[in-house]
Amino acid sequence: MRINSLCSRRGILDEKQQLIPTLNAEEAERLIKDYSDGDERNDSLVLELSAALRAFRKGVRRCHLISYEEDGALLFELFTKEGRGTLLSQYTPEELRTAGINDIGGILNLIRPLEEAGVLVERSRDLLETEISNFLVIELEGTVIGCAALYPVCEESGEIACIAIHPNHQRAKLGGRLLCELEKKARQQNHAHVYALTTVASHFFLEYGFVELGVGALPNCRKTLYNYRRNSKILKKQLKG
Ligand SMILES: CC(C)(COP(=O)(O)OP(=O)(O)OC[C@H]1O[C@@H](n2cnc3c(N)ncnc32)[C@H](O)[C@@H]1OP(=O)(O)O)[C@@H](O)C(=O)NCCC(=O)NCCS
Fold it and tell me: How many structural domains is the chain composed of?
């Protein structure tokens, strides 16, 4: 749930009177402490931030503070990209973590359109349930906006698969962050290299230090499962000497 709340200022302003466009609960608490200094001019700001924190404790995820003095501010917020006022969110932005069973719905929402477009291989909910421990997710305000998985191929190599970032959040290095974490995981599992098979995103893997190779470079156990009809490009990254 999201609450729009009207205030007298443009939103929450910093000490230089610049608008703070987004704040999370932790930052809001810090501001309340800083501004609870007895200066009457800060009373309304402390009241507004405290009201947002109270709403978070009751399950509201986002509160938006919008000026009642600016003509059309609410319409600008709803219908323009830059919006208006300050958005307070309960969550710290973009949390990258190991996926759990409760993330399956979010992962499916993210990957279904890509499966339908043939970019990703289809995975059923049942399969995801058994493989969920291979997955990492990036969550923003309670929504899964990124996912990727590391599968063991053989003792010394792993395969990075099912990497996807929500279209609204692409080109912000989130895919790179997932890749980096999966490479760390692969090193912990003593893999000397990781593979990625892709029909559309070789540029992305090349950007992060992968090299393109032929099917012959795949380990035998993976070569037998290679789907010649998909004709994916094969990329490999060396993790150890
Ligand atoms: C591929 C994907 C995971 C990349 O994630 P991302 O967060 O957008 O990528 P990053 O911001 O980390 O990209 C880093 C670099 O990779 C390259 N890159 C990423 N996406 C690209 C694209 N669509 N076209 C060209 N280059 C791209 C760029 O060099 C980019 O650097 P730049 O933005 O400074 O130019 C994401 O675009 C995606 O989900 N795409 C749709 C699903 C998909 O293709 N999955 C791969 C299946 S194997």
Answer: 2
